Amino acid sequence: MSETTPKSAVFWDKLARRYAARPISNVEAYEQTLDRVRHYLSTDASVLELGCGTGSTALLLANHVGQYRASDISGEMIAIANEKLAQSDQANLEFVKADLYAESLDEQAPYDALLAFNVIHLFEDTPDALKRINGLIKPDGLLISKTVCLSGLYGLLRIPIFFMQLFGKAPPVRFISAKRLARMMREAGFEIVEEGNFAKVKMAHFVVARKVR
Ligand SMILES: C[S@@+](CC[C@H](N)C(=O)[O-])C[C@H]1O[C@@H](n2cnc3c(N)ncnc32)[C@H](O)[C@@H]1O
């Protein structure tokens, strides 16, 4: 492993094979999310997904868009995603190992839509990450996201998560409420188009935001 591999990539690299083997925790919420995401996509759209993990969602959505780039900071996650891609006949999808700030993500920017599922709470500096995301999207383009919002009662998870982090069992996370997330998106140059939760899963907050011209 190179010396420059970020700590969070090391964490996700180690977890990747087990993550790939895990069943989807709430199939109903996942299907509802996919339906809602598809509603905003079009067959000529260029899409960038951040934190794509093992690529399952990308493989389900790529048929609905023109070009789909899916990125992740973890080389192991991307390796698994590429194994799945090799088993499919999806020609408009590519997986790239890249952090949010990697220059390689700028090569095909700006995108019509940027997808970020279960990753925004992992970025070190949320306001700065949202500004970076805004810069990757076309004016009027969309940020379609689902974010783990650990506030209210879920805020009590700070303590167990702190101990899990001490033992390398949890990644660094930001504790953001859904309300604050929406505010930060507006401050980064988006307007909120839709937000909510699916199948009563309150922790995972779905937000569609449009880049303001
Ligand atoms: C909780 S997993 C979510 C994976 C997938 N999106 C899903 O919903 O199942 C978070 C993913 O974000 C990636 N990730 C974490 N920090 C990242 C960063 N700074 N840039 C890009 N990807 C990152 C991790 O490697 C991991 O694959």
How far do the termini sit from each other?
Answer: 42 Å
Please give the domain count.
1
Helical segment tally?
7
CATH architecture: 3-Layer(aba) Sandwich
CATH topology (fold) name = Rossmann fold
Description:
The structure is a single chain. This protein is α/β, with parallel strands linked by helices and 213 residues long. The protein has a single domain (7-211), classed as Rossmann fold (3-Layer(aba) Sandwich). It is built from seven helices and seven strands, in the order H-H-E-H-E-H-E-E-H-E-H-H-E-E. It has helices at 7-21, 27-40, 56-61, 75-86, 126-136, 158-166, 178-187; strands at 46-50, 67-72, 93-97, 111-117, 137-148, 190-196, 204-211. A seven-stranded mixed β-sheet has the order 3-2-1-4-5-7-6, with helices on both faces. Strand 2 (67-72), helix 4 and strand 3 (93-97) form a beta-alpha-beta unit. Helix 1 (7-21) packs parallel to helix 4. The longest helix is centred in the first third of the chain and has 15 residues, at 7-21. The mean pLDDT is 94. S-adenosylmethionine (SAM) binds at residues 8, 12, 50-53, 72-74, 77, 99-100, 117-119, 122-123. Residues 8, 12, 50-53, 72-74, 77, 99-100, 117-119, 122-123 line the site of S-adenosylmethionine.
